[in-house]
Structure to design on (503 residues):
């Protein structure tokens, strides 16, 4: 593609200053990965392996819009659980049934993740985004129609629709980051994608206890629940419209050489089944699948059962239970962004993952030991420390997986990670809930500590094979060799002669 053609493809709201010709008519990329030629004539001067790359301003709109509709969906995951005692009273069901309003998010993911990742590979990001927001919007309006004590099955159906939408959401952060962002910002972009999910959970902890007070009058209680559901439905509808109007499949020019290489693979050469088999034979990745599931499964259990644990030691503190949940997630959001920025600067994927995993274990031990002391301010602090590391681990797992599995589809690798998290989340939530009922909160939290210890040891055993990073480094080295060849004609001539002799 010529420089003129690249500029013509640029939309008004995109970066008009990315491509630039210097005094020697060399085309360069500003603010991207590295200087790369963008002219098709490069094939004649010894740079056959290089392709044009550029970054678009629109990438930030895409990732922030994704974060918003991920927020809307994840908010509803904990919407019932954080005021479980109120919903058990309103719908006349037991606490374990309300726990399933959270666990349905985990259960739905398991059978549907493989069809959804296949659809992502075949149809792309825009189709997946449209389906996700449509399902999420439908679920919220079904809930609006369920605000009567005898309509628990209807509200469960609405929650199921939202949980189905989550299948189309959880695996997308790493895919959006790879498709739209440069190699120096891909981990930060993934963190922003995960950030929306975490912020939604935070709002889910904070808002329901405020909007739905624990009152005895059923008519008044129904009124408060209805207001909460109407607000949720309005936001979900607005986001669906924005996705229809704004969300774009991918940039016309890839952001990195690694992404350009992935695009160059003909569709007929790609096999989804072969990709799954390749991932299952990748031992470092399969270790990560298990360890990721253990860590995130523990987080799911803590989030689902938080209200029950707090109420045991601090009766009547439903609002503070929500605030503690908010503290966990807000601290985790900060941890996620810090970890993402750290990875982009250092590329120390394994070392950072092991360190954060170990600190998650330490945070869980401290939280378990201090929960029953009778001081809520202590619980706020220890829960915040736990959230900083446990929730901050989420983008680390995504990005480490992409590095270990390149050039396999990011959606497929993320899907396997999340599937593991859902399986362990269901197991841990059910088991910890039963242990809390029979032996108390300390025993239930020690149960999670044991599995976090196992996960830490297994993470340390993962072999760090950074395939995507190596691909980008090789592309940059090729670009530097080509640049040197342009500056020194003799070197360029030698390079062409060597290439011809090898051919």
């Amino acid at each position: 593609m010529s420089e003129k053609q690249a500029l013509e493809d640029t939309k008004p709201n995109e970066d008009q200053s990315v491509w630039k010709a210097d005094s020697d008519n060399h085309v360069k990329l500003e603010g991207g990965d590295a200087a790369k030629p963008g002219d098709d004539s490069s094939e004649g001067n010894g740079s056959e392996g290089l392709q044009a790359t550029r970054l678009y301003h629109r990438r930030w709109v895409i990732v922030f819009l994704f974060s918003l509709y991920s927020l809307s969906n994840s908010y509803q995951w904990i919407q019932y659980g954080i005021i479980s005692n109120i919903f058990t009273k309103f719908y006349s069901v037991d606490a374990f049934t309300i726990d399933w309003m959270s666990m349905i998010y985990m259960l739905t993911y398991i059978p549907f993740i493989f069809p959804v990742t296949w659809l992502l590979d075949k149809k792309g990001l825009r189709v997946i985004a449209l389906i996700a927001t449509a399902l999420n919007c439908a679920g919220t309006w079904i809930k609006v129609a369920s605000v009567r004590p005898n309509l628990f099955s209807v509200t469960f159906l609405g929650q199921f629709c939202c949980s189905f939408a989550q299948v189309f959401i959880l695996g997308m952060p790493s895919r959006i980051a790879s498709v739209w962002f440069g190699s120096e910002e891909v981990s930060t972009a993934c963190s922003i994608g995960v950030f929306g999910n975490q912020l939604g959970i935070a709002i889910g902890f904070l808002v329901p206890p405020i909007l739905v007070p624990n009152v005895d009058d059923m008519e008044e209680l129904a009124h408060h629940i209805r207001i909460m559901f109407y607000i949720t439905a309005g936001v979900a509808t607005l986001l669906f419209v924005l996705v229809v109007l704004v969300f774009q499949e991918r940039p016309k020019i890839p952001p990195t050489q690694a992404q350009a290489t992935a695009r160059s693979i003909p569709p007929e050469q790609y096999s989804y089944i072969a990709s799954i088999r390749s991932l299952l034979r990748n031992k470092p990745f399969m270790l990560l699948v298990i360890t990721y599931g253990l860590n995130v499964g523990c987080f799911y259990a803590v989030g689902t059962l938080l209200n029950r644990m707090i109420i045991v030691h601090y009766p009547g503190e439903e609002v503070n239970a929500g605030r503690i949940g908010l503290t966990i997630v807000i601290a985790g959001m900060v941890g996620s962004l810090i970890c993402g920025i750290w990875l982009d600067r250092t590329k120390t994927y394994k070392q950072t993952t092991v360190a954060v995993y170990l600190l998650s274990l330490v945070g869980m031990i401290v939280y378990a030991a201090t929960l029953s002391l009778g001081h809520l301010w202590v619980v706020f602090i220890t829960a915040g420390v736990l959230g900083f590391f446990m929730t901050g681990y989420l983008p680390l797992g995504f990005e480490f997986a992409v590095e270990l599995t390149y050039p396999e589809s990011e959606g497929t690798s993320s899907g396997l990670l999340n599937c593991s998290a859902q399986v362990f989340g269901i197991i841990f939530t059910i088991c910890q809930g039963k242990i809390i009922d029979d032996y108390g909160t300390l025993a239930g939290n020690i149960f999670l500590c044991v599995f976090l210890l196992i996960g830490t040891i297994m993470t340390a055993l993962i072999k760090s094979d950074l395939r995507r990073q190596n691909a980008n480094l090789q592309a940059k080295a090729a670009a530097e060799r080509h640049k040197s060849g342009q500056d020194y004609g003799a070197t360029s001539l030698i390079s062409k002669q060597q290439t011809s002799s090898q051919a």
About this structure: The mean pLDDT is 79.
